[in-house]
From TrEMBL:
Keyword Magnesium: yes
Protein name (record): ATPase AAA-type core
Database matches in PANTHER family: BCS1 AAA-TYPE ATPASE
Residues covered by the AAA+ ATPase domain: 242-397
Record keywords, A-Z: ATP-binding, Hydrolase, Magnesium, Membrane, Nucleotide-binding, Transmembrane, Transmembrane helix
SMART domains: AAA
UniProt region (Disordered), positions on chain: 312-342, 467-512
CC cofactor: Mg(2+)
Reaction catalysed by this enzyme: ATP + H2O = ADP + phosphate + H(+)
Entry keyword Transmembrane: yes
Gene Ontology BP annotations: response to stress
Amino acid sequence: MVRMGEVWTNTGSALASLVFIYTIFERFFPYRLREHFEPLAQRLIGFIYPYIQITFHEYSGERFTRSDAYDAIQSYLSKDSSSRAKKLTANTIKGNKSIVLSMDDHEEITDEFEGVKVWWQSKKHQSESRAISFYPKADDSRFYMLKFHRRDRKVITEKYLDHVMSEGKTIEVKNRERKLYSNNPSQNWSGYKQTKWSHVTFEHPATFDTLAMEYKKKEEIKNDLIKFSNSKDYYKKIGKAWKRGYLLYGPPGTGKSTMIAAMANFLEYDVYDLELTTVKDNTELRRLLIETSGKSIIVIEDIDCSLDLTGQRKQKKEEEEDKDETSPIEKQMKKDQGENKGSKVTLSGLLNFIDGLWSACGGERIIVFTTNFIDKLDPALIRKGRMDKHIEMSYCGFEAFKVLAENYLDAKEEDDNELFDEIKRLLEVEEIKMTPADVGENLLRKSEVETKEFCLKRLIEALKEEKEEAKRRIEDEEKKKKEEEETKRKKREEKKIKKEENEENEIALKEI
Ligand SMILES: Nc1ncnc2c1ncn2[C@@H]1O[C@H](COP(=O)(O)OP(=O)(O)OP(=O)(O)O)[C@@H](O)[C@H]1O
Ligand SMILES: [Mg+2]
C-alpha cells in the first residue's frame, strides 16, 4: 500500500519538474518561436481534449443586471432538471407565478438536439474577497457551462443556442404572472418611479369554455388566435407586422369584455387597457404604444365614445372663427382652453397607432376595439387589414344558453328536457332577445334554496316578461310615431289655414 507521505513526495517532485521545464522553455525559446509553438500546443490540447465550453453568467454587463440569457437557460433546463438532476434548488423569480426548480450548483445534465449531445453544468465562483458586501450576490457568481464536441460547433452556435433561448423564453412567458395594464394620465409620467402604464395581476377567470357562444363560432376564433400566435415566420415572409386586429361589436352585456379576457387567458398574453380619453395627443399615444410589450392584447373599449371622429373638422372650423378675432390675447386664451378640453387624439393618429411603423416594434400583438354601435365608426378604422376580424356579439341563442346552464347550474339538456324545450321555443321560435348577461343573472343561484329547476323556471318567466316588454316597447314606439305624425299633420294644416287666411286678407285689402 502506498503511504500518504510518498504520494506527497512524488506530486511535489512532479510539480517541481514542470516548473523547471516551463522556465527553460520561457528562457531559451525566443518570443517569435513561442508564437509559432502556441497554436501547435493548442491543436495538441484540442486533439487530447476535443470539447468546447461556453459560459453564461448570471449577472452580465453591469454587475447587478441579471442576464436574460441566464434566465432563459434556467427556464429551458428547468423542464429537464426537475426530473433528472439529483440536487435541485427552488427559486422564486420576480414576476413568476410559481417556483422554478433548477439544478443545484455543480450538478450536470445532458441534452440532445438533432442527434447532438451536450452537457450543461451549473457552477459557482466563490469570490476570495473577504470584504463585507451589502449585496448577497456579489460574492457568489453563478454561471452555466455548456460543453459540446468541437465537431458539433456549427449546430450548436447556429441552431441549438437559438433553440434554447426561444424555448426558454416560451417557458418564461408561460410561468410568468400575467398583468393587466392601464395607462396613467400624462401629468404623472415624470417623477420618481412614474411610468406610463400601471399594472395589477391579471386574474380574470373567463375562458372560452365559460363563454356563451355558438360552438362553431368559438372554435373559429380559437383557431384564428392559434394560427396568429404560431405565424411569426409567415408574417415575416409576407412582410407584415406581426399583429392582428379584432373588432367586437354588439349590444351591452353580450360578452365583449368577457371575450377579451378569454382571449388573453387562451393565449396567455398580458392586457393593456387603453383609456383614450386620458391620452392628450397623437404623440402620447405613440409613446404609450412603444412602452407595451410583445405577447399582449391592446384593448380600446367603446371606441365610438372614446374618440371624437369629427374632431379634425371641428378644429378647422375653430381656426376659421379665430381669423375674425382681433386680439391676440383672446386668441391665445381660446387656444389654451381648447388644449385643456381633453384628448386631442385624431383618427389619423389612431390609424397610425394601429398600423404605422411604430406598431411593428416589440413582438406579437393583438389590438381589440369594442363598440355598441358599429355603424357609428369611420370605415377607415374598421376596414379589413386594420381590424382583420369583425366579431358580432349577439343576444343569447339556445346554444349559448346551454353553455350558461351548464356553467351556472350543471344543468344538461338530457336531464331537464321539458324546461330546456320551453327555453328553446322561447329563444328560437318566439325570437325573444335577451343578453347573455341577463340570462346569466337569472340562472345565478342566489341562495341554497334556489334549485336548478327554480332558476330555469325563473329564466322562463323572465323571457316571457321580456316578450311582453318588447311588445309594449313596440306599441309605445308606434304610438309615439303616430303622435309625431299627428302633430306634424296638425302643424301642416294650421300652416295651410294661415296661408289661406292671409290670401283672403290680401284679396279683401285689394278690393278695398
Ligand atoms: N357571452 C357571454 N358568456 C358568458 N358570460 C357572459 C357573456 N356575455 C355576458 N356575460 C356575463 O355578463 C357580464 C357582462 O358582460 P360583458 O361585460 O362582457 O359585456 P359587454 O358586452 O362588454 O358589455 P358592455 O358593452 O356594456 O361593455 C359578464 O360579467 C359575464 O358574466
Ligand atoms: Mg364591456
